[in-house]
Amino acid sequence: MTTLEKTIGEIVAEDFRSAAVFKKYGIDFCCKGNRSIAEACEPKGIDPSKIYNDLENFRNVTSENTDFNSWPLDLLADYVERMHHRYVEEKTPILIQFLQKIAKVHGERHPELHEVYELFMESAQDLGAHMKKEELILFPFIKKMIQVQRDGTPLDTAHFGTVENPVAMMKHEHAVEGERFQKIAELTNNYQFPEDACNTYRVSFQMLEEFETDLHKHIHLENNILFPKAIELEKTLRN
Predict the structure, then answer these.
(1) What's the pTM?
(2) What is the C-alpha separation between 225 and 59, in angstroms, rounded?
């Protein structure tokens, strides 16, 4: 398949470094990665040839890259949990504390900080529940499928039916988070702090941007690699 034929998610799945190109043009490569470049460019009025050129230039630059697409699914699930779930758990309480503080101190001059704080609080609550569902329900089933494949034993039917059911729920929740952080980015002018920002204000925005970047990679690994491969593996085992 050529770049013209591939979805954005497939392009990023082949090499995550290409995500930087899509981020440059404000194109969602994780939650809305099932579109072609042309489809993503049309509503934004972007000339697709600019992205094709940037991708071509990017491919000519050689650097080390992790090929997550080749990883076994149980290893990838463990990686997501240990790297991205733990990241969320570690950074969330710090960000809540900082965002609450700057909203209280700077909220009168910058009222958008109150909404940013509320949005992040919603995200913290929803992400916590979301990750537990993955860790206790979806990921164990994916690991079980890998074990069944290795042992050559029959795959028992899960209480949720097909793996497509929890995957659909997780993808919906990813989309909600994607829209929430898009709103946060708009409210913060893409995390640009004002001249009167104190150090906590600056650090908060830097941490928020880093949090969003990590979340995008987290969602990408699941939506574009782990989930579709899990669905295909289940179909193979059932047949």
Answers:
(1) 0.79
(2) 21
Contact between 22 and 16 under an 8 Å Cβ cutoff? The reply is: no
Q: Where are the alpha helices (DSSP H) in the chain?
A: 8-14, 19-24, 37-41, 48-59, 73-79, 86-106, 112-133, 139-151, 164-187, 199-220, 227-238
- What is the average pLDDT across 58-65? 58
Residue 108, phi then psi, degrees to nearest 5: -70, -40
Q: How far is CA 60 from CA 5, 16, 63, 87, 146, in A?
A: 20, 15, 10, 32, 36
DSSP letter, residue 69: G
- Tell me which DSSP letter residue 29 carries: S
Residue pLDDT, tens place only, 181-220: 999 999 999 999 999 889 999 999 999 999 999 999 999 9
Q: Which two tokens stand for residue 164?
A: 């497509």
24 or 174, which is more confident: 174
DSSP code of 154? Answer: P
User: DSSP code of 65?
Assistant: -
Question: What is the biggest distance separating any 2 CA atoms in the chain, rounded to whole angstroms?
Answer: 64
CA-CA distance, 224 to 137, in Å (whole number)?
A: 19
Mean pLDDT, residues 148-158: 90
